[in-house]
Amino acid sequence: MVLLRDLSSQLALDDPEERRVLSYVSWSQYETLLADLGEASPYRLQFLDGVLEILAPSRRHESGKTRIGDLLLIYFLETDTEYFPMGSTTLRQPERQAGGEPDESYCIGTDKDIPDLAIEVIVTSGSINRLELYRRLGVREVWFWQNDRLLLYHRREETPTQFALTAGYEPIAQSELLPDLDMGLLTDCIQNPNPLAAAKAFRRGIQASR
């Protein structure tokens, strides 16, 4: 059996995106692994109800999350939107048995302990319900970039009833945190294989809409 303290040396980095899942992990073991790996760790850890998921991101994964972040920075600057980037900060709620690291995350308007927006790039499917995880962490809006499209969710219920299948989040077509952001333009520019051309097209699109 792989011991948690040996996990970082056991992960095979020749796989472009390797995902490992461990069950029956205690909160203290999760926090110990976080401390052992340190802030410079290349791995992303998600914890929910004793299930620990460890991801070694691929280049495709990291490219996607960086390009989304670059485009949002252009949006914030062009629209004079107050924002506070939190990046992949580890979010923890031990009393709710939830901990996670989004690919990108932001507080909008004012700085907070928990981001308003969390963004994840999905290349390979995981075993942890990400929306349930973010509900417990208290994130208002979650975006997933998956299969070359954006999927947006806004939290409606603390105790899921109407939106039970999506952990209390409602699928939305337009961000409620950034209501003036053209999601079609953003999607087109993320899909553009040339990052510089995408950034220029995105800026032009924002300027043309004002």
UniProtKB/TrEMBL annotation:
Name of the protein: Uma2 family endonuclease
GO MF term set: endonuclease activity
Keyword flag Hydrolase: yes
Position of the signal peptide: none
Domain Putative restriction endonuclease: 27-181
Annotated InterPro entries: Nuclease_put_TT1808, Restrct_endonuc-II-like, Uma2
Keyword Nuclease: yes
Gene3D superfamilies per record: tt1808, chain A
Pfam families: Uma2
Native species: Vasconcelosia minhoensis LEGE 07310
Keywords: Endonuclease, Hydrolase, Nuclease
